[in-house]
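residues and backbone:
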Amino acid sequence: MKQLRPFARTRKYLFEGWGNRSFLLLALGFLLLLCLAVSLTLGKYPISLRELWFVVQQGVFPTGGTHDDGYDLVRNVLFDIRAPRLIAAALIGAALSISGAAFQSMFVNPLVAPGILGVLPGASFGAALGLLIGNSWFEVQLLSFTGGILAVGLAMSLAKMYNGDKLMMLILGGIISGSLFTSLLSIVKYTADPTDQLPAIVYWLMGGLSLVDTETVAGTALPILIGIGCILGMSRYLNALSMGDEEAKTLGINVKVIRLCLIVFATVISALTVAMGGLIGWVGLVIPHIGRMLVGPNNCILLPTTALVGAIYLVLVDDISRLLLDVEIPLGIITSLVGIPFFSIIMKNAKQGWK
């Protein structure tokens, strides 16, 4: 196999990416919009695509005929119940997937997921504590986000305390931080009221979007989108980091600053997903592998592809959650049931995506 010289290899990772594969992004974007439109019509209250189009048309170009109770009911179901939930599903899928892809490229490790620095255990502990002592849903979300940030802060503080390979120390710090907050979560569950609080905590930890409303989406969508945009904007730096610290430094990149920024952005959007929909596992581990098998390791094309695939995936999972049984199945259960066998199957071919 022909080996690329250092300059050619650097150019390949930094400047290639879009080309013909931009068509794939357009196709995935169209597929996401199609999934959202069809999902809006699915549910216990059936709504046809014609009714959906009429409501959207009246919102953009009002022509009258909207004064009956049927129109108001369809509009409320679409925009007050289903739309916030589907937007949340798309945002969570995109955020978990792109943060997982960023962590995997940053640490050059295909087994890394968004929870590597303890953000998911920390956010879970914060949410459980909020359900135990809080009186409002806002407090639960705030404590969930705060717990995720504290967990990552603890992991980074532990890494700074010791000399040696900083990357390895950071991962070990994440393991320690995650174990600590998992233990604290067990204490919260042990002290919770078994008839009221404990079932609520367990249900939250299984992940779900049944409590998502317009205010929740409005409060979390903007920071998640900003975080995703920042990670996308740093895709070329991420390419350089994936070649190794020394090679990145020769390109004039401040490795410490870039890595810290990427960790902060990926952590913030991961913590916000827990605050929005609870603990939803396997998305940040499996979807980046699918994206990498589709387009390869170049983060310029991999990151947007992964975000779109993740958004489509979680919208479809939410449809299954709502429609498969008479009662809603928590999202975390479905993502685990799908992710574990799927990851087992693709493990054999996962290395191809890194070449």
